[in-house]
Amino acid sequence: MTEVQTVTGPIDSGELGRTLVHEHVFVLGEEFRLNYQDDWDEDEKVEQAVRELSELESLGIDTIMDPTVLGLGRFIPRIQRIAERTSLNIVVATGLYTFNDLPPQFAYRGPGLMIDTEEPLTELFIRDLTKGIGDTGVRAAFLKCAIDDPGLTAGVERTMRAVGQASVETGAPITVHTHAGSESGLVAQRVLAEEGVDLARVIIGHAGDTTDVDYLCRLADAGSLLGLDRFGADAFLPFNERIDTLVELVRRGYTTSIVISHDASCFLDFVAVESRDRIGPKWNYRHIPEDVIPALLDAGVTEEDIDTILVANPHRHFAGARR
């Protein structure tokens, strides 16, 4: 078995249980919060997160992977407070979230740049994975990067290659935020493969925002897991179409290529609280156990298929076993 780092310490990959592969606890800009988020109450937000994650655990979910990295407001001490009060496993990531440019801390430092050094991103990612994030003692267990509609910009490519290098160096798996409409998952696979990454260790995140099953099969045939991970985010793709796409993938024999999640959070400063229903009225942690699994069973997906999707596939993602 493989050791997986959680916020409260290492566990065996066989102890992950039913796993949602892409959930945030908080998504926020810490600099913005400190200066302008006048309604922020730290204790209240922690209590809310404990309630919502404990409720998720009571619905049969054992683990969430939280890909909140630089650019999304990762603050591990807050996550530690929450993890200490729930037995749900929280697995955190390292990496950097950008669709375009790099933050100024990295824009001028790196190979061939004004301050010509080895890639600092790779060094930081490896440190988070092997030594810990800051002085928290919490080690990241996977890597995260992004490529969206703007495509493979210089900043996106540099981040993605650093993520690939850190994965090859440490063996840590990768989640990539992608844009299904532009088929950017294929670009991510190409770049990561050029860095020597085993594509079987890669989740193509947000792949489930499309009904183009042929595109999804191309990603899966290259070895990667398909992140059908925005259930509840109806603004990107309605519920019935997400269900139909997953059922068709199972029918075609791709059950071992599917992982699922919501991409939900307890707090998201991208949109106002009162506007979240515009993304989806059921965009929350409960949607998969309460609505998605029953709909899949009604559509002919078996309990064994669901266990493969929720248990076996995330386990294999960390253990490095091929399908």
TrEMBL record:
Keywords: Hydrolase, Metal-binding. Coiled coil: none annotated. Pfam families: PTE. The modification N6-carboxylysine is found at residue 144. The keyword Hydrolase applies. It comes from the Bacteria. Belongs to the metallo-dependent hydrolases superfamily. Phosphotriesterase family. InterPro entries: AryldialkylPase_Zn-BS (IPR017947), Metal_Hydrolase (IPR032466), Phosphotriesterase (IPR001559). This is Phosphotriesterase.
